[in-house]
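Following up on my earlier thread - several people asked me to post the actual chain instead of describing it. Fair enough. Here it is, all 180 residues.
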Amino acid sequence: ALPSGDAPAGAVILVHEWYGLNDDMRRLAGRFAAEGFIALAVDLYDGRVATDAPEAMQLSSALKTPDAVRIIAAAAEALRALPRSNGRVAVTGFCLGGAMAIAAACGVPGLAAAVPFYGIPRAEYVDWSRCEAPILGHYGAKDPIIAAERPQALADAARAAGRSFELHLYDAGHAFMREA
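Reply from S.P.:
Thanks for posting it. Predicted structure:
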């Protein structure tokens, strides 16, 4: 999704939640474009979209984090090469996508920022020594899936390693950004 006008703009990679690249994620890409960003919603499931939680669990379980990070890295490279790009690329994501945003922050050089929403990758994909991007994390204090202590511990570990991790906990549960 492209912002109006022809001025150079920053770009954001949007990584879907466990349902896949659905209409909600496409709407979010449009919202980013309306705010002036070049937005690219990546598809980690190769065109498949889940319609219920069991199917989403199956798709997300089959996804390999290194593959997702490679897709995000390719998206960042493609966005930087666009004539409209100002060269700055951030990544954001929701649930599964939030976890992949943090993994990308630790595995994709040159990201301008990472903004995860209620997602945490497995520990083997978090290497703070490789993280260049500042992180702005958004999590629900009442999330039954990711207890508030987990993002707090993640942010504390990042800061202990000298990385920037600003954490926001909301009076909300999981998937509080989902529109549909």
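The CA atoms of residues 135 and 172 lie 20 Å apart. That should answer part of your original question.
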